[in-house]
Amino acid sequence: MTHVLFWDIDGTLLTTARAGVFALEDAAREVCGASPDFQALHTAGLTDAEVAALAIETCGGEPSDNVVDAFLRAYERRLPDSLHRRKGQVMPGIVAVLDYLAGREDVTSLLLTGNTPGGAKAKLAHYGLDGYFDGGAFCVDTGGRDSIARRARELAEERLGELSDERLYVIGDTPHDIRAGKAIGVRTVAIGTGPISFDELRASEPWLALEQLPEPERFAELLGL
């Protein structure tokens, strides 16, 4: 029986050390004529479209679908170069776990992320993680993370057939990820490697809460793989 692990990107798989802010600032200046102070905006766990809408509103604009889309396309164009401007990293233990899971025929790793497809591709390629995931669900419109989670489950079942809730896991570093997993009725794993305090993560009542990623065999044991 196949287990499917849906992975968040930012704060879970890697950190860009906020290098993406440079691309967001450039996109805001192109689309809005000005840039908000992204350091002051609460963006942890938001989808790229939600970040774009917040930036547009903060600049005094109307975040219509067309304006949000223009913002995201500008952001995607600038992101690859922006990633070189900060020294980000893959989160501790991620490569070891992904290598271990890739060697198992009963586990599939997919993405469930608020990044746009282009944004996710740029980040994974920059940090050398693009070979571990056979696609996933991304931010493709102004729908929230719950709608992305529903598309992720649909994708997995299109490929693998009907899957029981107990064999599906959403892994992320914010309460938004936990709520998305609960929205589709699957097991949720919170990892305290992002900007949210571990106490706040536990308060979102995930199925499993980890302060950091353990050794691969222990991780598999905790998940029941």
Order of strands across the widest beta sheet?
Answer: 5-4-1-6-7-8
What would the average pLDDT be, to the nearest integer? 93
Strand content: 5-15%
Summarize the biggest pleated sheet.
Answer: 6 strands, parallel
Features:
globular, 225 residues, Rossmann fold, 9 helices, 6-stranded parallel sheet, alpha/beta, 2 domains
TL;DR?
This protein is α/β, with parallel strands linked by helices and 225 residues long.
How would you characterize this protein structure?
The protein is of the alpha/beta class. It is 44% helix and 13% strand. The protein has helices at residues 20-32, 48-58, 65-82, 94-102, 117-126, 145-160, 175-183, 198-203, 216-223; strands at 3-7, 14-15, 89-90, 107-112, 136-137, 168-172, 187-191, 208-210. The strands form two sheets. Strands 5-4-1-6-7-8 form a six-stranded parallel beta sheet, sandwiched between helices. Strands 2-3 form a two-stranded antiparallel sheet. The radius of gyration is 17 Å and the shape is globular. It starts with a strand and ends with a helix.
Summarize the topology.
Layout lengths: L2 E5 L6 E2 L4 H13 L15 H11 L6 H18 L6 E2 L3 H9 L4 E6 L4 H10 L9 E2 L7 H16 L7 E5 L2 H9 L3 E5 L6 H6 L4 E3 L5 H8 L2
Parallel strand pairs: 1-4, 1-6, 4-5, 6-7, 7-8
Antiparallel strand pairs: 2-3
Helix pairs in contact: 1-3, 2-3, 3-5, 4-9, 6-7
